[in-house]
Design a protein that fits this description.
Blueprint (H helix, E strand, L loop, with lengths): L5 E6 L13 H19 L2 H6 E12 L8 E12 L2 E10 L2 E14 L10 H4 L4
Antiparallel strand pairs: 1-3, 2-5, 3-4, 4-5
């Protein structure tokens, strides 16, 4: 886990459990997406959020262990690299010290006004360093 990361807590609820009685894989993906959104919301100014949005273009996830009802999860994320219009984000989901899920996602920055891809400006790059 990277030192300068964003973390939020989540308790596994009944709605998150599948027919095998563990954390549903789809819910894990939603937690990964939530982590990216919360991190952006935490870092970006109102101005940046009104000017730019992130568009998911690629998603890789590995399920390492199972989560269960009532588990207290830590969802940890950071931006690994940025280049041009793209950003690669890592998200890890933990129960205590047990890694449940690891994910790498590629996002593109979109200009809200034009709905076109935008090169990541220095003011956004500085948020992730």
């Amino acid at each position: 886990m990277k030192a300068d990361c964003f973390t939020y807590k989540y308790e596994v609820a009944p709605k998150d459990i599948d027919e095998l009685n563990h954390l549903n894989n789809i819910r894990s993906i939603e937690l990964v997406l939530d982590a990216a959104k919360q991190h952006w919301e935490h870092l970006a100014s109102t101005k940046l959020k009104s000017e730019f949005a992130w568009f998911l273009v690629e998603h890789h996830i590995k399920y390492k262990s199972q989560g269960f009802l009532g588990d207290q999860l830590s969802i940890v994320t950071w931006v690994k690299t940025t280049s041009g219009v793209k950003s690669i984000r890592v998200v890890e989901i933990y129960r205590n010290d047990t890694l449940l899920t690891t994910s790498t996602t590629t996002w593109c920055l979109v200009n809200q006004a034009t709905k076109t891809l935008s090169k990541i400006p220095p003011e956004i790059l500085s948020l992730f360093n």
